[in-house]
């Protein structure tokens, strides 16, 4: 077995976090909470880090929007991770693209 390169490790770690984030989003029902340092920008793409898209933008948000479409999630509450301020951001779920059979 050969040792992984730094790039292979980064790709593996990103894949792990992407899958875990999507799984966590899929476990939500009713009121979903999201922790962020910029709760006003949840509906805007974040800058890529190491040429990887934001997991929030690429996986978590589409999954939560899907659950909202299926009436599994009713509310999205954003919590600022610094101030602990809570804001209803359900509008972020309504503004997404409609997807047929998104839970398959």
Structure description:
- This protein has helices at residues 6-26, 55-69, 90-94, and strands at residues 30-36, 73-80, 86-88.
- It has a three-stranded mixed β-sheet with strand order 1-2-3.
- Helix 1 packs parallel to helix 2 (55-69).
- It has one domain.
- The protein has three helices and three strands; from the N terminus they run αβαββα.
- The relative contact order is 0.18.
- The protein is an alpha+beta fold.
- Helix 2 (55-69) links the parallel strand 1 and strand 2.
- The mean pLDDT is 85.
- 39% of the residues lie in helices and 17% in strands.
The helix count comes to 3
Which outline best applies?
Answer: globular
| Strands ordered across the widest β-sheet | 1-2-3
Average of pLDDT: 85
- Low-confidence segments, given as residue ranges, are none
Mind describing the biggest β-sheet?
A: 3 strands, mixed
Give the structure's gist in a few sentences.
Helix content is 39%, strand content 17%. With 104 residues, the chain is of the alpha+beta class.
Task: Record keyword descriptors for this entry.
single chain, 3 helices, alpha+beta, three-stranded mixed beta sheet, 17% strand, 104 residues
How is the secondary structure organized here?
Blueprint: H1 6-26, E1 30-36, H2 55-69, E2 73-80, E3 86-88, H3 90-94
Parallel strand pairs: 1-2
Antiparallel strand pairs: 2-3
Helix pairs in contact: 1-2
